[in-house]
Amino acid sequence: MNTHNNYNSFKTEKEGKGEMKISNTELQRYWFSFCQHVSCVAKTFFFLVTCLYRHILLRVHPLWIQIAYFMSLSFLGFCLLKLIQPRSSSTNSSTPIISNLDLFFTSVSASTVSSMSTVEMEVFSNPQLIVITLLMFLGGEVFTSMVGLFFIRLKLKTHQDKLATSSVSIPPITSVLDPFELEMVEVRSDQQPQNVKEPDNNDESSVVGNGEYLGYNSIKYLGFVVLGYQLVVQLIGVTMVSVYLSTVSSAKQVLKKKGLELFTFSLFTVVSTFASCGFVPTNENMVVFAKNSGLLMMLIPQVLLGNTLYPCCLRFSIWVLGKFVKKEESEYLAKNSQEVGYKHLLTREHSKFLLVTVIGFIVVQFLVFCSLDWDSVALEGLSWYEKVVGIIFQSVNSRHTGETIVDLSVLSPAILVLFVAMMYLPPYTSFLPVKKGKNGEGNSDQRKRKRRGILVENIKMSQLSYLLIFIFMICITESKDLTQDPLNFNVFNIVIEVISAYGNVGFSMGYSCGRRIKMEGNCENKSTGFVGRWSPEGKSILILVMHFGRLKKFNMDGGQAWILL
After folding, report:
1. Within 10 Å of residue 555's Cβ, how many Cβ atoms?
2. pTM above 0.85, yes or no
3. Pairwise CA distance, residues 511 & 530, whole Å
4. Boundaries of every domain in the chain
5. Under a CB-based contact definition with an 8 Å cutoff, are residues 504 and 546 in contact?
6. First vs last Cα of the chain: how many Å apart?
7. pLDDT, tens digit (0-9, with 9 covering 90-100), for 518-533
8. pLDDT tens column, 400-455
């Protein structure tokens, strides 16, 4: 009887184990089905994201992508600066209070590389200086153009995938839109899209290695050249500035007195100079280093290599690298600079004229400065050698960087007018003789643009028209101070501030309590820009001006519908 009961108990337990085994099998089947479902959803989501990306890349105007990029970067910078505490004053243990508008203004100024300031730079802590450095790096023209090259390459890859699956007409490289460049590359009327043939290893003019297109490889190679160019130039600059500051006692003493870390100052200043921003961690900008001619001479090449002479140096770098590596890609880039669609890669002839023009502008400013303000208060206390280096440094920075060794408010009015002209000119302004037959091509391109958006072309105004509107609006918002404090708040100072913000330079006349006519209330001189004394409405308008200046190349041909007779 007991044996029979044990047998039934064993049978029941065995059946239970069988049921458990079946349960595990079903659970595994359900889990496998769930993984397949998730995988299918993920693939669908990835496909939709890819389609959306391609739609944005091909359909959305580059202007809107640029606006979204710089606004997002500015807002991100504002959030980071808001989360990090500023440093305490050396005379007062309390932490300074910076308004949200001033923080956002600083973030916009750094991301658009404008260096317009509403607060003193020494109130920012070391982590905040690192954030501003990152904003200047990401907002610099060289970096954004490098990102644009990768976008062009991705689009060409998409075209190659289409070509591999179907025989369709693929547009040439010049029809590719670069969403991170400040212009839209267009196909000329005489460059109609042609059918692209299948890769042929025997045709070395169109392909190189493994059946890849030479144009695609060249753009990929150009992207890495730009990346290497940027990193090498700034790495050399940071190293040289760090060595100088650690060995020269006068410069080292300035950092110690102001409580600035040597490496942070070197990194911040070099990135700012190369990106043509002009921010310096000191309240006085480079005025405190006016006698450190060696430091100024180290920063002058950073100004030129990152801005006005960047196309010339980039073309030279490609030529030098082509002697050792990637000879076919280098030769393609040298011969087809316009077809690549990278606006910083100029033709050989254009690069030569740009070099001559940049040197010519520097010489003109140097001669005018020496003739008018050699013995002025601005250069008082400097030796003749320090004056020469300082004037060269000031002349180089007047184009787009905005670092200064003098108080602009004490300079001659003629020099200030010359600086305004230099700030207004685009960085690649050059004397380029017009060749015979160019006018016809220009008219053809103009007709094509008008066919695309004749309404937009008719509405767009010239750059000067927009600047006049901005100046008019600021004169309204600051009308009270224009009446009560005319020596500080005058139209000429406002014009300099607006043109400086438009050119993303950073020059400012500042504000002096000693120039007030009515000595009412407490007034404290601060080392900030003139905009620091403006109303919130005026600061908001200048934020628009900085963004407009950063995106001004979208409207370089505006105002053609207006005819002056």
Report:
1. 17
2. no
3. 5
4. 453-555
5. yes
6. 123
7. 777 788 888 889 999 9
8. 889 999 999 899 999 999 999 999 998 888 876 655 444 444 444 444 454 555 66
